[in-house]
Specification:
Layout lengths: L1 H25 L7 H8 L3 H13 L3 E3 L6 E3 L2 H11 L3 H16 L2 E7 L3 E8 L14 E3 L4 H7 L4 H9 L14 H14 L2 E4 L6 E8 L8 E8 L6 H18 L4
């Protein structure tokens, strides 16, 4: 009897793993046919069909009636959005980045760390002549973005080393940090100055200045950044002053002193 119960649990866990694999695969494509999907998740077509039907019944997958192809629904977005709205600092931070953008006339981002990556939570304003890759809900590396390095600077060097050993650094531009020694040297400078700089390390022609902020519960609850064209760096002192001013304000409003 016990063996039968354990077998049932194992089967259910396997089905959950397979269903999650289907969702994660569909999230990477506009849509897929059943055959394409079954090939990508390495499952038999009949098994894939059964799991897809279950996910459709629960609202996680849509099927285009004309093309017969499947795509991930917006239910995952709604669930994630509920989690985002439950993060207490968001309303405070969102209000402040709007003020910061108005003050600087530049694009301002709000991010949190998610599984050793930067997750863009909000974006406000538009810098002159700057077209950026960042979009709300997308991710970026920690090591080559100003917001990411600001968050990394709050970790002990041993934790930074562990992070570095877990990734394969990609040369995004000719200025991207690609060695651990370079990263540590820059993090030391960030700790001294209080702000981080992305000097065309993630996107050419774009400079970002960032600072992490804290809450009553977390040393690094998130980070904010100002993104600007390289030509506007003649006013670097103005922008670094503003990022420090607003990150401090957010921390204070969140109960960190």
């Amino acid at each position: 009897m016990v063996q039968k119960e354990e077998s049932n649990v194992s089967t259910k866990v396997q089905s959950i793993d397979r269903a999650l694999s289907i969702l994660e695969t569909l999230a990477d494509y506009p849509s897929l046919s059943l055959m394409e999907l079954s090939e990508k998740v390495h499952l038999h077509k009949a098994t894939t069909h059964r799991l897809v039907n279950s996910l459709m019944e629960n609202g996680y997958i849509d099927r285009n009636p004309d093309t017969k192809q499947y795509r991930i629904s917006l239910k995952m977005f709604h669930l994630g959005n509920k989690r985002v709205h439950n993060i207490d600092f968001l309303n405070v931070a969102k209000s402040m980045i709007r003020q910061l953008s108005d003050d600087t006339k530049q694009t301002v981002h709000l991010v949190v760390e998610d599984n050793d990556e930067v997750l863009y939570i909000d974006k406000y304003g538009e810098s002159r002549g700057v077209r950026m890759q960042s979009k709300i809900g997308t991710k970026a590396p920690l090591y080559c973005t100003a917001v990411g390095k600001a968050l990394l600077s709050t970790r002990q060097n041993a934790a930074v080393r562990e992070y570095w050993d877990s990734i394969v650094p990609e040369q995004k531009t000719g200025r991207t940090i690609t060695t651990y020694e370079e990263l540590i040297n820059e993090l030391d400078e960030i700790r001294r100055n209080g702000y981080a700089l992305d000097d065309e390390e993630f996107e050419e022609g774009i400079v970002c200045i960032a600072a992490a902020f804290s809450s009553a519960r977390e040393v690094a609850a998130g980070a904010i950044s100002i993104s600007l064209p390289l030509s506007d760096m003649v006013d670097k002192d103005f922008y670094t002053g503003k990022i420090l001013e607003y990150s401090t304000k957010i921390s204070q409003l969140l109960g960190h002193f």
